[in-house]
Amino acid sequence: MTADIAAILAIDGIATGAVYALVAIGTVLIFTVTRVIFIPFGDIAAFTALTLAALDAKQLPGTVGLVVVLACMACAMEVVALARAGELRAVPKAVFGYLMLPLIVVGIVWLTMRFNPPMPVRIVLALLLIMPIAPLLDRIVFRPIADASVLLLLTVSVALHFALVGLGLLFFGPEGVRTEPLTSMAIEIAGVHVSGQTVLILTAALVFSGLLFAFFDFTLIGKALRATALNRTGARLMGIRPARAGTIAYLLGSLMAGVSGVLIAPVNTIFYDSGFLLGLKAFVGAIVGGMASYPGAALGAFGVGIIESFASFQSSTLKDVIVFSLLIPILLWRSLASQHSEEEVEE
Amino acid sequence: MTLQQIRLIIAAVIACLVAAPFVLNPFSITLLNYIGIYSLAAIGLALLTGVGGIVSFGQAAFVGVAAYSTAWVTAVNGYSPWLGLVLAVVLTCSIAAILGFVTLRLGGHFLSLSTVAWGLAIAFLFGNIDGLGQHNGISGIPPISIGPLALVESRQIYFLIWAIVVAVLFVCYNLLDSRIGRAMRALRGGNTLVESLGISAFQIKLATFVIAAFLGSLSGWLYAHLGRFVSPGPFEAGMGIEYLMMAMVGGAGSILGGVVGAAIVTLLKNTVQDYLPLIAKGASGQLEIVAFSALFILFLQRARQGIVPFLASFLPDLKQSRPQAADPLPLRDKPEPGTLLLKVREAQRRFGGLVAVNNVSFEVKSGEILGLIGPNGAGKTTMFNLLTGALRANSGEIAFAGRSITHDQQFHIARAGISRTFQHVKLRPRMTLLDNVLLGTYSRTRTGLLAGAFRLNQAEEASARYEALKQLERVGLGDKPFELAGNLPLGNQRVLEIARALAADPTLLVLDEPAAGLRRQEKLKLAELLRSLRAEHLTILLVEHDMEFVMSLVDRIVVLDFGSKLCEGEPAAIRSDARVQEAYLGGVA
After folding, report:
1. Residue A311 contacts B, CB cutoff 8 Å
2. Which residue, of A138, B29, B186, B422, has the greatest Cβ tally within 10 A?
3. Coiled-coil annotation: which residues (chain A) (predicted)?
4. How does residue A346 score in pLDDT terms, banded at 50, 70 and 90?
5. pTM: predicted TM-score of the whole model, two decimal places
């Protein structure tokens, strides 16, 4: 391996790592606020890419069907839950939040698509369409068992991923997609060719992490989210509803995953099931940060990207084996580094 | 229900299993074959996840390692399937032992995540190794032969599969009812509890992990020779969660649940495959996984208990006979009353900047009851944890019976003769009183894994059961040894913990706030029990808040305040000590 190749691999790895970093940050966000290890996050990213590809092809994306189905289910569950609790007055608000809002989003997309919007608008539409999915899934799947152990939530989360992959095939079909490049520019840094796409990926990763950081530090909702992450009961006593904080976390996380999906779509061919590996690799990064630290997760994700890039140069078939085998020493290191208190498994 | 009736039911079920292939059509037999094969993997997972509390997503990978091993031995290299079985078992168990050795120290969800990781990594390997046919898999696997008889038809291999399943069920039930099995069932109570009983949690977890993999390897071996073809598909992550689903639907804590779960999932899958095309033409493949995942999620939300425990709750209770008199278990050599038993010298423990225990020294003499008291935050619990090995001292030394235990692991200290109880009662609520106390005899008994699984050491088991009953009677709980521990009121639960500690035949009994939360009558009874133990020359160290309780009971008192020792002496002297009064009541203004 020459220095040139190493440089190319490194840049490639950093670009991939940036995509993983966005998903990893979203994973950490959701875990800290809701204690759910949201394995289907990669699927959200992949679905964004598929949605964008469908919009590019001037088709109605499968996401529309998915959102409508999920919205109906979530709304029905919420209404039933409210009726049982005898809080019928809250029903209109629930119908608006869980049914109307997602449908309005779908309507906006449907209307805008009639005017052949340019690329940036299509990206925004794709992100808009993808954002309701995770909060709706949260309502349907995780809210009824919000107080269960992390282990049970994880099991549910893995099962949910497989359901989503099946739904993905149903709504998007088996074809892989690759969207048109966002930019054709290229620059040269110290004699190494760097594509505009790579620069764009890095910039986007930095901007969105920065925005998240600002959101946490400078807004009241952001602070409420941090409070929930630190201590759910304490936050509840301060008038913060954990369920609402969870919804916001899922929305924000989906945005991060969606952006990463948009960024990776022109580089890699995305299939309905590509999300699993994307999500898990981001997840390896998140674990480096102990599922708690955002900079740690981002650094870990970059590390995964670079290792994967070099591993695929050595042996393209075994790169995934290498990446996942790496998780075990990382987990060991984390478990030694953190003095976690003992948690008894529930009966 | 009596044991006799249960034996009759088992005999009837086995008769049905034997008769099945002569009655059913070939398709149903094939279905039964797959149910049997999946059962084996699911039973392994029921042991690991349900009994041991270790959620594993990687069982499918172990099944795959075994299936590919035997395929490689037989189809690629042309040797006998029995040699394939040897390699399958050895390789799978070795991989499990190595993975377990590396990962089983991880806590809770981190451990489960690691199973996702190696499960994926192993599944990727199958599809990417040249010698294993890559994504095309290996075909032309020969059938298993018993002597001259080749098990070609599904009717023939049926008997082998179900003979193995029935044998595995018997062995697993024996195992769970033995010394090692009880330790496995205790794993869910957390490491502190398990280690306080003289059990190495890591060793037991590793054993459980390897057993689960072993059952997976049997499943994989049969799978390869039933289908006569292996490819990466059936061993991927999706199947890992399907096995987990089988184990949990059946009832994760129950061995029989593995078989029931495998049957339900397999039959359901079959039905879904039949009917889904009617609902949505051409989309059945993807809908199947959606339907399954949705059902699993619904199950986890609504009925985590599982089917077998649910049904078992309708059955009449099993009438068990009280343990009969048997040879006593060997006793420890006890030190002469009055000799030095425990010596704590300059022990210090810091948490970051906070010094929780600051250079504390005291001694405990054999045969006395020593009280360790102090206001909230005085460092009593930390001191307690240092003594029992739950925490390590930063400096200083702790010696027990003339030997330093400062750096010993918890279970070594427990085996050396220090038994403890817990401030927040740690019992296994779903185990009987007798089984809970039997846990205490772990360090006094020797029966190993295989001896327990094949019931080879019944004499020792009988002695242990009799010992446990004697301890239950000693503390006054001898009338209902087969009651579940979770059904006892708190006072009796504390007493049960003491019985469990006594079953270990300790030299030193350390009690962490035994009177907390007890009513007055219960406290009086507890004090009476402790006095009777002292009369039998047992040494007791007591951490307690309740002044009246301590003063009336103990021989000497050590007072801690802000991590340091304030004073030491007889109860009357402590009661009148100005420093103690100030620490508890505040200074005189």
Report:
1. no
2. B186
3. none
4. very low
5. 0.87
